[in-house]
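TASK: fixed-backbone design
INPUT:
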């Protein structure tokens, strides 16, 4: 049973009534309200609101859950079960409460006469445009089970790519965090003790390196909250600025061109383009729709713009391989493989091979980045450590030398 909150009109008094009711679905809730001689105005699912709130915090359902959902639904439909019964079976086997609620909503929509694709399109944070297009193509062609299996493979490949990118970025981030923590500790705890030591000895002066770092130390100790506010404000500003407009263009261009991560991201984008296109083409989605959906799936505004330009050329009769051949936002292997596929009538096969190639290349790029970043970080860490240690030890050596001379 689902908890609903409703607003209803009492015809006898003309007043609005607000209360809660439990029912299996919204229609049953409306029926119970009418039995109370009330006219329902608005009915909201309290459980759904709670789930949507948690979803907004989590931002998405786990990829493993979506892959499992796709595979289970594919298997049940392939076994001959009706779509609604298949959805109910999958919902019963789902452990995630938020996902259960979403599947229940899809079941109600399908029972009400909606297609599975339209029902899923009401949950864009869970089912993206690629997912909807493949399900729609599967429903139209009668190969929904095959389309869902392809979706599961597509999701696993995409999740694997993202895992590799995070792995490449994790090591330098950890090293930087540790370095900042160590420097902060030295500035806040160790250097002030050196200053106290010098103050107790008349006629002594701190070395210039130590004096400069002490100024930084005092600034950090007294104004740490200012730095914290600046960091938080800058983080919020950059996160919003890079989501759309010029900010997103700058961010995506940096990801494509900056060394050493540029080659990695370019191969990730090519793998994503080829894999998504191959999956959609194999499911019978029209080429123009394939390109429109793939443009969104690549998640780079510059490549998306290049795809839109290619769409216009394809509409004019140009082959897709020729439409993207001289585009700087596509690596040369993609149009070459596409051209072979177009000539042989095996476009999805060649796109899948190109995707496999770039996915393997991503492994090599991740290793290259690790090999490049590791020595660079070691050098930076050594310079920082030397500066801090020198700032601490030079005053001590100076005092020791002065005492030795006096003796």
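OUTPUT:
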């Amino acid at each position: 049973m689902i908890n609903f909150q409703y607003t209803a009109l009492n015809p006898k008094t003309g007043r609005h009534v607000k209360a809660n009711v439990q029912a299996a679905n919204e229609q049953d809730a409306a029926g119970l309200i009418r039995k109370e001689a009330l006219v329902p105005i608005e009915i909201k699912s309290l459980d759904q609101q709670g789930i949507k709130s948690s979803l907004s915090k989590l931002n998405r359902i786990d990829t493993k859950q979506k892959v499992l959902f796709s595979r289970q639904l594919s298997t049940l439909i392939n076994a001959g079960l009706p779509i609604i019964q298949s959805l109910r079976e999958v919902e019963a086997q789902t452990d995630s409460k938020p996902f259960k609620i979403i599947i229940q909503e899809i079941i109600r929509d399908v029972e009400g006469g909606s297609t599975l694709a339209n029902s899923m399109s009401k949950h864009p944070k869970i089912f993206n445009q690629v997912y909807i297009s493949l399900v729609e193509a599967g429903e139209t062609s009668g190969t929904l089970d095959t389309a869902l299996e392809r979706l599961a493979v597509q999701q696993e490949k995409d999740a694997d790519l993202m895992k590799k990118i995070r792995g490449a970025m994790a090591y330098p981030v950890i090293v930087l965090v540790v370095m900042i923590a160590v420097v902060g500790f030295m500035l806040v705890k160790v250097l002030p003790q050196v200053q106290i030591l010098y103050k107790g000895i008349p006629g002594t002066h701190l070395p210039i390196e130590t004096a400069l770092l002490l100024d930084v130390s005092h600034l950090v100790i007294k104004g740490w909250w200012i730095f914290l506010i600046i960091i938080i404000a800058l983080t919020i500003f950059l996160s919003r600025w890079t989501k759309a407009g010029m900010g997103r263009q700058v961010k995506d261009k940096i990801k494509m061109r900056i060394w050493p991560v540029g080659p990695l991201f370019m191969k990730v984008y090519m793998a994503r383009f080829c894999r998504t296109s191959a999956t959609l083409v194999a499911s019978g989605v029209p080429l123009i729709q394939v390109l429109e959906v793939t443009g969104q799936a690549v998640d780079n505004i510059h490549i998306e713009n290049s795809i839109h330009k290619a769409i216009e050329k394809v509409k004019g009769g140009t082959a897709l391989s020729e439409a993207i051949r001289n585009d700087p936002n596509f690596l040369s292997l993609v149009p070459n493989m596409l051209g072979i596929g177009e000539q042989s009538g095996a476009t999805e096969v060649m796109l899948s091979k190109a995707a496999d190639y770039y996915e393997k290349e991503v492994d090599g790029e991740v290793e290259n980045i690790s090999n490049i970043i590791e020595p660079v970080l070691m050098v930076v860490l050594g310079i920082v450590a030397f500066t801090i240690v020198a700032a601490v030890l030079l005053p001590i050596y100076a005092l020791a030398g002065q005492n030795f001379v006096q003796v």
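COMMENT: Residues 53-59 have pLDDT under 50 and may be disordered.
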